[in-house]
Amino acid sequence: MNAERVKCLIIGSGPAGYTAAIYAARADLNPVVLEGMQSGGQLTITTEIENFPGYPQGVAGTEMMSQIREQAERFGTQVRADSVIKADLSKRPFCIETESGAKIEAESVIIATGASARWLGLESEREFMGQGVSACATCDGFFYKNEVVAVIGGGDTACEEADYLSKICKKVYLVVRRNELRASKAMQERVLSNEKIEVLWNSKPNEILGDINGVNALRLEDSISGLTRDVELTGVFLAIGHNPNTDLFKGQIDLDSHGYIETQGKTSKTNIPGVFAAGDVMDPLYRQAIVAAGSGCRAAMDCERFLSENPIAE
To answer: If I label 210, which of 10, 192, 272, 314 is the partner at 20 to 30 A Cα–Cα?
Structure first.
């Protein structure tokens, strides 16, 4: 099979990937988007989004991503339901192989594969996803105003999310598997001095309980005694970390110690000329749709400039 030649290949279909496609298409780069396993990215498992500009009444994650995709396609973007299984970034054009068997030679690549939240692995966790279970307090905390919630985790992210939720919720349980926090000393002090946060030490989540109305309790096992108890609440926030989706690119692109793609300064440029990164795959800090969309814009603009200055002779 002869390889297809593409000027701009975008790997990933979240707000970063689709926004990059909008800008790339308007710049006549004829972008091709490979959606990956989850069309629309993580936002498609978010029931309601209320903090993205332009939606005063809020919007379902699936609806918003569908609209952004439609906007990208309007300008000529080709969106394909396919996943990358192999990427050779050693020279231009870059050689990409997909799950469907397609071979693509890309003059430039924008990586927008995102980062996946780590989950507990409970069946009930998936059952109540979007109905009381979330991996983003900033995204979903508002829906639990004056309610009782739990944050699971003991690092800086967990403490930050517990502190954030304490400003919205009536009470926040911080569920910690061990008898100590892994967070920085400053974050520990902030949490431990907060009257609205109760730390549940040596506690392992066994099951998330609920009904057709959503979550109503969290079953915890004491790691010392082995005894279990049910804590009544309406929301459970996972804060045990994220895994950047960069396995395909290890050994080729510079990654930080946690596996996120490193970019140069304020640009989207990676260590490989012609390869750019956008969204959560290079952003371990903010992880917000609006930030990802902005970085997708930057990646497309960087890509356009690169292609104009570095054409490949036919």
So the answer is: 192
Choice among 139, 159, 169, 303 that is catalytic: 139
DSSP-assigned letter for residue 13: -
Work out the number of other CB atoms within 10 angstroms of the CB of residue 7.
Answer: 19
| Digit-coded pLDDT (tens) for 88-108 | 999 999 999 999 999 999 999
pTM beyond 0.85, yes or no? no
Catalytic option among 82, 136, 156, 297: 136
Cβ-contact 217, 230 below 8 angstroms: yes
Which residues have CB under 8 Å from 91's CB, separation 6+? none
* Cα–Cα distance, 229 to 204 (Å, whole number): 11
297 is catalytic: no
Cα end-to-end span (Å), the chain? 19
Superfamily classification of domain 123-238: FAD/NAD(P)-binding domain (3.50.50.60)
Q: Which of 8, 28, 88, 140 is catalytic?
A: 140
Determine whether 139 is an active site residue: yes
137-163 confidence digits (pLDDT tens): 888 899 999 999 999 999 888 998 999
| CATH for the stretch 4-117+242-309 | 3.50.50.60
Greatest CA separation found in the chain?
70
* Structural domain boundaries in the chain: 4-117+242-309, 123-238
Instruction: Single out the residue of 159, 94, 127 nearest to residue 303, CA to CA.
Output: 94
Exposed / middle / buried, residue 212 (Cβ in 10 Å: 0-12, 13-18, 19+): exposed
Q: Say how far apart CA 151 and CA 73 lie, in whole Å.
A: 39
